[in-house]
Amino acid sequence: MTRPAIAASQGVDAVPASALGLTDLPRIDYVDHFAVPTTIDADPERWARAMFGDEPDLGERVIWSVLLGLELATGRSPATVAGWRITGRGEGWVRLAAAGPLFGGNLVVRSPRGEASLTTLLHYRRPPASLVWPPLSAMHRMLVPGVLERAERRLVAAAGSADAVP
User: Is the pLDDT of residue 160 over 90?
Assistant: First the structure.
């Protein structure tokens, strides 16, 4: 059986308004949204941790801290996911936030029944951000579908492990 494709959209006019309404950024200069159909029943924070882990891996740290200059929290904490602060949550969604000299960013993870999604929103805090992000955004859009697929596999594996425990 063929897996349904991951849906992708980019730009304020293309991303679902329900996702845009969850940002705490003062202005949206970049946004994209990726959604995967799924049968996994997991809350948004579990999806976020399956996507990014409790702490950023080396690749994430290079992208987020070095290339984008985002200031991430260090160490594991129930108040962070991969160094991004949890700044909002509600029924079916969680918002992660990080900021640095050039960018403010939100990662919004939603998990309504039958779907999981990741919305990336950026605010350009200084003019050079508009030059830095466009080339990086192409790589970002190539990586996100794999992030969602790996997260789903991790959640399936974790559910299988939980089922195996007497």
Answer: no
